[in-house]
Automatic annotation (TrEMBL):
Pfam families xref list: HNOB (PF07700)
Species this chain originates from: Paracoccus chinensis
A molecular function GO annotation: heme binding
Name of this protein: Haem-NO-binding
Domain Heme NO-binding: 2-120
InterPro entries, alphabetized: H-NOX_domain_sf, Heme_NO-bd, NO_sig/Golgi_transp_ligand-bd
SUPFAM superfamilies linked to this entry: Ligand-binding domain in the NO signalling and Golgi transport
Amino acid sequence: MHGLVNRAIEEFARVTYGEPVWATAAAVAGVDPRGFELMGDYEDRVTACLLSSLAARLGRSTEEFAEDLGAWVAQRPSVRRLLRFAGSDFAAFMMTLEELRGRGQLVAPGLELPALAVTVTGQGWRVASDCHVLWLHAVTGMLHAMADDYGVLAVIEVADSGILVDVPVVDFNEARPFSISDPAVGAA
């Protein structure tokens, strides 16, 4: 697993749950408590063990933890800007998800994000992928965060090797401010 993914897990744990939670989970997973090298390459089992350790320490399932992680990552200002740049509204954003893998590789060569295939359904979309189920949950969290960012009421769930996104109300809330020219606008 790319170091950037592991560093995101590390930062999420440290910022959200504190150093003691991170230190305990890192020890259980056999990870250096000082953290991950951003451009390092780690065995997938290390990442899986770390996710399991963190989820267990917090009394959550690994799927719930992965979803929270995805939402947290999407709210980081630099990631949010990259995601919001993809579309002026939630529908346009959804239709550019297939480009996410390539964009990730532009930002961090060697980063292997899951390949996503988006199809339009009645009131929303189906996002298909043959990736590990925890990736699906992380993407689900990211989609929840982006739906909120765009002011859309969306029901989003993992189902049948993919993600179902149902949008009963497009203008549920006002979208968060966003400007491509000013990184401070909408930064939270």
